[in-house]
Sequence to fold (285 residues):
Amino acid sequence: MNLSSKNYFLRKQIETGLRLGVLTLGGFLTLAPLWILLVNAFKSHAAIVDNPLSVPANWDFQYIINAAEQLSFFKSIGYTFIITVISVSLIVLVSSMAAWIMVRKKSKTANVIFMAFVAAMLIPFQAIMYPLIQLFDGMGLKNMTGLIIMYGGFGLSMSVFLYHGFVKGVPLGVEEAAFIDGCNIFQMFFLIVMPLLQSITVTVIIINTMWIWNDYLLPFLVIGNAADKTLVLALYFARILAGQYGNPWQLIFPSVFITIIPIIVVFLFLQKYIVKGISAGAIKA
Fold:
């Protein structure tokens, strides 16, 4: 082996070591908050304040039970589940059909509409939240229905962008063959096109589900301290009620822990589709 070959292999080993080091550091920084949350969800307030990084001497599930009672966990998770499922279903249905029509239309109008969706991604919610809330209040929609409509609207821009890039990879010949076989436009979309968009659909579902499930600001503005609260909103008001005289860490940590468990489970089962869907949609866009 000559000198240049040795230098090449040495350089590759150094590069591999650096990549491994960066990935290890990134993994540590990502998992550290989850570790802190896990170990402190089973400890008393005094134990948490004394050493928040230590493993609990006794894994006491009573703190989890108390937190679930404070949050009205099953009622709140059911309310959150309904809002999330309906909102995400609305986003997937409207954004996929809109992106498909815009790609197949190939007109200036379709391009302008698509650019409008892309431009909407740059508008922060905080810039329009008060006029929007006033508008929905005037229409009597400061309730669960209005919240679902808002989520459906705000989730469209990025979802249309992802679908638009992915639809370009769907062969037009497949749709033409379905049309020749007698399919109408709805049969063509739901029976032919939609199954081919499976990976990007799962990506859109995961992204929007994580956002809607963990969102605090919009439910707070729309439904506030109503009897029926989302899980994150119930966590906020339970924290305010219990923390009038300090920070109730024995409630905060287990409450946050049980709040994020459902979305973590969904993410772990569907994570393989995220990178595939986003990269494919972005490259084809």
